[in-house]
Design brief:
The complex is a heterodimer of chains A (about 250) and B (about 290).
Chain A (H helix, E strand, L loop, with lengths): L1 E10 L2 E10 L5 E5 L6 H8 L7 E6 L2 E2 L5 H6 L2 E3 L12 H6 L10 H6 L1 H21 L15 H14 L4 E5 L7 H16 L4 E4 L3 H7 L2 E6 L2 E6 L1 H6 L1 H8 L2
Parallel strand pairs in A: 3-8, 3-9, 6-7, 7-8
Antiparallel strand pairs in A: 1-2, 1-4, 4-5, 9-10
Chain B lengths: L1 H26 L8 H16 L4 H23 L4 H21 L1 H4 L12 E2 L2 E2 L3 H23 L2 H11 L1 H6 L4 H27 L9 H14 L6 H18 L4 H25 L13
Antiparallel strand pairs in B: 1-2
Classes of the chains: A alpha/beta (about 250), B mainly alpha (about 290).
Bound molecules: adenosine-5'-diphosphate and magnesium ion.
């Protein structure tokens, strides 16, 4: 679905992403791994339009998307989460969920006065879906709490659920299991597997090798901003360049 | 009794003024330090038009449109700025508008001000006496409150809050934060214009000195004291602060004291603002969901 050609980005002297060309095939979950500072987050930032590339092209479903503003990319169907979780702290868990659907009728000033029926209907449907997702991630008892009152792991779950609530064609997760306890990691992995069965497509940056091997159908490996390998988890695990760069053995 | 009615008229006018700032600051996170400019525009436009025999209904609509248009024009360049820089731009804007009131003598009579602003006539009902004016300001407060409540509780209001909470997260979910900022700012400007209009026709005399930074600070204080981002906060803040301010004015103090009164009041307001920011930043009322 996503394809890049010759993508490059440097910050001052640092070449964060260097001449990256790759294509995501039809795997439900594709992984992106690489040592710290190898340019994984930067690659996500480029795809989602948060930073403009220096050179190169990005395609999504065959359409060119580099040059779009980040909110346009999101509306186009690519939603992301952040390495450092970004919930809306002084809004309730429910409000965090309801913000996600793109282009809501009730976000237009005029509709508030001329189209209240449609808005009420949309809200009812969104609320129902949000409740299901909140329930799925086990946060029902916290739905009227400010998101800032949640533990870090719960915030990660909320961010994931919120991404799904946006109903994207593809969701990009930046280290969904970083900084949380093993039980919570399990919960998140099960959640991703379940969403995969429901047809959601993922592109995941992940540090935890076990997670990546278990979940992904295909893996890209970055080192120093360059793609050094791609393949099935088994192949990647045994690839000498990957072992040298990433596993440091 | 008249003092009591007068107090409530002022409270309602400032409640509208504060509600408009609360939408921008409390709900959307836009720190507007030039909000008095829109209050002033409302007051001047409506005063000038009615002084030229334009019916109040039209003058009011023109005043609201002028305030909204000005808000729109200002928001395009300055809402691209972030946080503090935006605050400074609005501060400068507030001063510029006051200078316009002061220097465009042909139109505004400059520092002399505009005396004899007529009492409003709405659908041939004249709001001349204090009780009548109280009714008028109460009516507009309730109307403003209801309109804002619909906005705040709608998906639009939710998007405003998302912009306030985390712009990056909002963008990642497909929100055009620039549009939402403009919308909030324009709605806030129109409602500040309404408050200004009501105030001008109440005092019947306006001059540039009425629209200084001090007014912005007062309304800021009302919002912060009442509780940013709460529906009833502006009313609560206005009751406390307007009561305090206006009763000082009507105390029968010895003449030699009165010249200390204004600076004293500014000092008290300033200290109160600092105290609130440090010890109770959420104000008297709190947003829902904060518990635990
Ligand atoms: N906004 C930025 N400004 C300057 N340097 C950056 C910025 N973002 C990333 N970098 C640098 O680019 C390199 C790649 O970073 P990043 O993409 O975050 O790596 P990863 O996510 O793989 O750990 C690092 O050297 C980092 O310091
Ligand atoms: Mg990273």
């Amino acid at each position: 679905m996503i394809e890049t050609r010759g993508l490059s980005k440097s910050f001052g002297g640092i070449q964060a992403v260097s001449n990256c060309t790759f294509a995501l095939k039809d795997h439900a979950i594709t992984g992106l791994i690489g040592p710290n500072g190898s340019g994984k987050t930067t690659l996500f930032n480029l795809i989602t339009g948060f930073i403009p590339p220096d050179r190169g092209e990005i395609y999504f479903k065959g359409k060119r998307i580099d040059g779009l503003l980040p909110h346009e990319v999101a509306i186009g169907g690519i939603v992301r989460t952040f390495q450092i979780t970004r919930v809306l702290p002084r809004m309730t868990v429910m409000e965090n969920m309801l913000i996600a659907p793109p282009r809501q009728t009730g976000e237009k000033f005029r509709s508030l006065w001329f189209n209240p029926k449609t808005i009420r209907k949309e809200e009812r449907e969104n609320r129902k879906k949000a409740l299901e997702l909140i329930d799925l991630v086990g946060l029902s008892h916290l739905k009227d709490q400010f998101a800032q009152n949640l533990s870090y792991g719960q915030q990660k779950l909320l961010e994931l659920a919120r991404g799904l609530m946006a109903n994207p064609s593809m969701i990009l997760l930046d280290e969904p299991t970083a900084g949380i306890n093993p039980i919570m990691i399990r919960t998140i992995m099960e959640l991703i597997t379940k969403m995969k069965e429901w047809g959601m497509v993922f592109f995941i940056i992940e540090h935890n090798m076990d997670v990546i091997i278990e979940l992904c159908g295909w893996i890209f490996v970055l080192d120093n901003g360059e793609k050094i390998a791609e393949g099935r988890p088994k192949e990647i695990q045994n690839n000498p360049r990957v072992i040298e760069a990433y596993l440091g053995i | 009794m008249d003092l009591f009615l007068h107090l409530w008229v002022m409270i309602f006018i400032y409640t509208i003024f504060a509600m408009s700032l609360n939408l921008e600051m409390g709900y959307t996170g836009l720190f507007n330090f030039g909000h008095v400019a829109f209050f002033g525009i409302g007051a001047y436009v409506s005063a000038l038009l009615t002084l030229h025999q334009v019916p109040f209904e039209f003058a009011l609509v023109a005043a609201l449109l002028a305030a909204g248009l000005l808000g729109f024009l200002l928001s395009i360049p300055s809402l691209r700025l972030r946080g503090d820089t935006f605050g400074i731009a609005t501060l400068g804007f507030g001063e510029i508008i006051r200078m316009v009131f002061q220097n465009e003598v042909w139109l505004t009579k400059g520092p002399m001000g505009l005396p004899g602003i007529p009492k409003p006539v709405l659908f041939s009902y004249r709001f001349a006496t204090l009780p009548q004016y109280l009714l008028l300001t109460l009516g507009f407060s309730v109307l403003t409150f209801l309109v804002l409540r619909i906005i705040i509780r709608s998906p639009l209001g939710r998007a405003f809050k998302a912009v306030r909470e985390d712009e990056v997260a909002a963008v990642a979910l497909g929100k055009n934060i620039f549009h939402f900022r403009i919308k909030s700012f324009v709605i806030g400007s129109v409602l500040a214009g309404l408050a200004g209009t009501l105030w001008g026709h109440y005092t019947t005399f306006i001059s540039p000195g009425d629209f200084t930074l001090l007014e912005t600070i007062l309304v800021l204080l009302i919002v912060v004291l009442g509780g940013k981002g709460t529906e009833l906060g502006p009313l609560v803040g206005a009751v406390v602060l307007i009561f305090f301010q206006e009763s000082l004015r009507f105390l029968r103090l010895p003449a030699e004291w009165s010249r200390y009164l204004a600076p004293l009041q500014q000092m008290i307001f300033g200290s109160l603002l600092i105290f609130l920011m440090i010890y109770r930043p959420e104000g008297l009322l709190r947003e829902k969901g904060a518990g635990r």
